[in-house]
Amino acid sequence: MERFTSVEATIDALARRVLGRLPQTGLSAAAIEFLVFGLKQAWACLFAGALLGLILLTRVVWPDGIGIARYDFLVVAALALQAAMLLSKLETIEEAKIILIFHVAGTLMEIFKTDMGSWVYPEPSVLRIAGVPLFSGFMYASVGSYMTRIQRIFDIRFTAYPAFWQTAGLALLIYANFFSHHFIPDLRLGLFALTGLIYWRTVMYYRVFRFRLRMPILIAFILVALFIWFGENIGTWSHAWMYPAQKAGWTLVSWQKLGSWFLLMIISVVLVTAIHKPRLPDAAGEAVDSAKPQGSVAPALPPTSS
Fold first, then answer.
1. Which end of the chain lies in a sparser environment, N or C, as judged by fewer CB atoms within 10 Å?
2. Where on the phi/psi map is residue 99: left (φ > 0), alpha (ψ -120 to 50), or beta?
3. Residues 111-145, buried b or exposed e (16+ Cβ, 10 A)?
4. What per-residue confidence (pLDDT) applies to 292?
């Protein structure tokens, strides 16, 4: 897996020249790491942030009588974003594949969920399947885009990563439960426990600027799910979709949905690791010693290990 596209490699080289002259110890060094972390997170959210920005913008300034439905415009805009990111080498072909997979899986779930009344799309549109506007699949795809971009931008490595048959089986059970809980008891509590059992030993190691840090992967899952939940609140406020409780007026999305996003994110992690195999840390010393400066924003990667 290439860590950077050609455009990103150019940006990285410029950043190294600037940041490499700054202090390497003390509060200044910590502030630099925090700044780079935020910038990398924003870059990983490039597609998701652009799509969410368009959803907000069209909610605020969409003119009447423009001749195209807002939802249809969002479909065209999302496709244009994807084309622009690929042509400008801001996104890799592998990331585009994951976005396509997520779009299909998300649209299938949307068709079922809207038919069951879990949520609604209140505005009219032409580009839709079974009442589901096609732009909705891109919202799932944006999660997949973020997950695969963050894995390469932060050069994420793992120790004690579970076997693929375990994670794939878990993902299939989670996906099935999103459908089956309408007819049989909801198994999400058991799925939470199974997720903890499978991933409890797994630690992720990620490079910010000078340092490689580590975090239990279950904590990372929770933090990303919380981030997505915030985005969902923005989406429902902008009437991109609405839950039954929000028909009389917007209210905060239920905290129960945080658990749904946690489980859905597990599916995204499994799909990403199916394409980009989990890799071991470079060396035991680098993995454990998070206080050891690495000396550059993007050192060359060693041969891939699995």
1. C
2. alpha
3. bebbeeebbebeeebeebeeebbbbbbbbbbbbbb
4. 41
Q: Specify the pLDDT at position 291.
A: 37
- Whole-number pLDDT of residue 1: 53
Q: What is the pLDDT of residue 65?
A: 80
The torsion of the CA quartet 101, 56, 68, 77, rounded to 10 degrees, works out to -40
pLDDT of residue 303: 29
Averaged pLDDT, groups of 10, the chain, 306 residues long: 72 80 77 89 92 93 88 95 88 82 89 93 92 90 87 91 96 96 95 97 91 92 93 91 89 91 91 85 52 37 31
pLDDT at 283: 60
Query: d(Cα 76, Cα 40) in Å, to the nearest integer?
Result: 27
Domain positions in the chain are 6-288
Let me know if 204 is exposed, middle or buried by CB neighbors in 10 A (0-12, 13-18, 19+): buried
In whole angstroms, give the CA distance from residue 58 to residue 69.
10
CA distance 131 to 24: 55
Helix (H, G, I), strand (E, B) or coil at 281: coil
List, as own/partner pairs, every contact residues 44-47 make where C-beta atoms lie below 8 angstroms and the sequence separation is at least 24, other chains included.
Answer: 44/146, 44/149, 44/150, 44/153, 44/154, 45/146, 46/85, 46/90, 46/91, 46/145, 46/149, 47/81, 47/82, 47/85, 47/91, 47/99, 47/141, 47/142, 47/145, 47/146
